[in-house]
Design goal:
Layout lengths: L1 E4 L5 H15 L6 H6 L2 H14 L3 E7 L2 E9 L10 E8 L8 H15 L5 E6 L4 H7 L3 E10 L2 E10 L11
Parallel strand pairs: 4-5
Antiparallel strand pairs: 1-2, 2-3, 3-4, 5-7, 6-7
Length: 173
Amino acid sequence: MKIRDAVPGDADAIAWVHLESWKTTYPGIIPQSYIDGLRVEDGAARWRVRLEEKSATVLVAEDEAGIFGFAAGGTPLHPVDGFDAELAAIYLLVTHQGRGAGAELMRRAARAFRQQGFQSLVVWALQENPACGFYEWMGGVRVAEQGIEIGGVTLPEVAFGWADIGVLAPAQE
């Protein structure tokens, strides 16, 4: 497994991983009609712009078969008092979960955020997302809640925070 900075040419693969992750994570949580309406092409166009603008830190995890996961974030899109960085997205194909890649993506993203001067980190997740257990395992604590509208339905979302980003990205590594 290799983790590296994403480049614009990774947009299609990132969009595919993003969509495939939604298809395996969110049935029964997000309306199926919304999931069924998502298209890789639309996501790839959005990721291409983000990667070209370099408006966020985006890392990809890959193996000999290609990209199987990614993490993205930086300046908060959904601010929480007391937290100055946000992990806006982290997704892995279900076939690669539970093998340490998610934890390594989180650590590498936190390290990049720390190098950019960020001191704390928050990540939002749908309350019913099984990844909530992963964030708690990584040391995150619930620090906020809100509703988010997806597919015409308002769903509960929770924020997990790390008041000191150093617990994820120690200075001495």
